[in-house]
Design a protein that fits this description.
The chain is of the alpha+beta class. It contains 13 helices and 21 strands.
Amino acid sequence: MAFDGITIACLTKELNDTLTGGRINKIAQPEADELLLTVKTFQGQYRLLLSANASLPLVYLTDLNKPGPVTAPNFCMLLRKHILNGRIVSVTQPGLERIIHFRIEHLDELGDLCFKTLVIELMGKHSNLIFLKDDDTIIDSIKHISGAVSSVREVLPGREYFIPMTQEKKNPLAADACENFDQLLMTKPMPVYKALYQSYTGLSPIMAQELCHEAGIDADLPASALSTNQLRILRDRFQEMTARIQQGHFSPAIIYQGGIPAEYFVLPCSLFPKETQKSYDSISAMLADYYAEKNTITRIRQRSADLRKIVQTALERNVKKYDLQMAQMKDTEKRDKYRIYGEMITTYGYSVPDRSKSFQALNYYTNEEITVPLKPDIPVMDNAKRYFEKYAKLKRTYEALTEQTAQVKEEIEYLQSVSTALDLARSEADLLEIREELKQTGHIRKGSSQSKKQPKIVNKPYHYVSSDGYDIYVGKNNLQNDKLTFEEAQGNDWWFHAKSCPGSHVLVKTNGETFLPDATFEEAARLAAYYSKNREQGKAEVDYIQKKHVKKPNGAKPGFVVYYTNYSMVAKTDISGIREV
């Protein structure tokens, strides 16, 4: 979800409830477009992050302390001069704009009580932090915007502060917000959800889609095609939404898809299943977790780029090799036909006239008449020799290709498993272990640095506990899979793996018990489905068997095992509700 006006409304309520009456104890500017305020209240001390970053403007309470530069920037020094030790009187939002006003009282040089306002505008590339006098005159801003940059509004010291026109959008919280609601939407030649967020401030596209979903309306339906009843229901849902905002009834939650944070909402969400939602009491905690997880995923993706390139290049090369070998293998299917031709000539060739181009013979293998082609310019019996030579050559090719294709197919499956492990990696330690694995298998040259003592990689499998209290372990990569299955598992422990696709080995420790609850089997299967290449499909078939029946062939690649007489079940790839330790 975008950092829209509704999110700002939820954030404003939390900040107003938490910080009003508090005194600003410290002011730091750790980044060129970012402030960190330390506010002391009767309830305790809080840190408020205010970021006007063009790509990711943010405001939230945080526990993290970011050090500022040795020499404070001018804007920071100005704020320290005016509002250090000042008291926050209120935190407000004008309308449903993406703007927050911090009204602060302080004593001036003469000891008189004065009021200032610190404004943060969260508007993408137009985001800014602006410091105002009580009469809305701009004292200074963290970004100066001259008339040469913007013809709409200058943000410079001495200029009057005002909020630019929002394209004639209506304020959803105004008393007349629903006047001409039907006409406002139906006159716009666009899908109904677009008509909603282009008619009212503070609405993001995803929130407009949520309103349509609550009203039971297809969001992509043209607004002009809505019936009177549909417009009435949509208007009711819209009024319910604005009432929740005005009453401060927010419910922050992160939406997860495939274990990755995909969206967040601050109002109840029906667009996504409940089991994919993680609820929070604080929007600051939600925003901190959401962007921290997003940043971690982005950082891991960036750090794994070189490994992905190595794996992808090797995978593409082996797939091409395999396709070529399979085409050659198809040509060897003629070998038995050539052998039979040779045998037919050896059996019946004495009666075939010289210079014949073919002859009919009874194939004693099938009791069917076949036509045997001949080269008329050589003796009949020499044709038999020619066919036997072709047969022998194709047989040798077939035998060689059978071994080679098996090796290449095993290599492809192995590289696919490494690619899946890279997709599942969560930390630097995961990537280091995968890199070590690729070194051991020869895909990365070890180099001269190998002679030096390398730091030992300490990385453990994922550890979950089933609802019945049984420990479940999940390998993060092929090396961990081997160690988990063949070093840490006992013979009667249960072993799970997604069927016919790359994935993690999942092990359920039985603690010597013969029977396990069905719920534990189901949860272990869900983990095996989730930690596999099929995680995006929603469901996956999972094989499970006792560990003592799982074997590793001699010379097999890391992570490769064989097993027989296994059980199978179809499991969802949703692992919400399974406790991770």
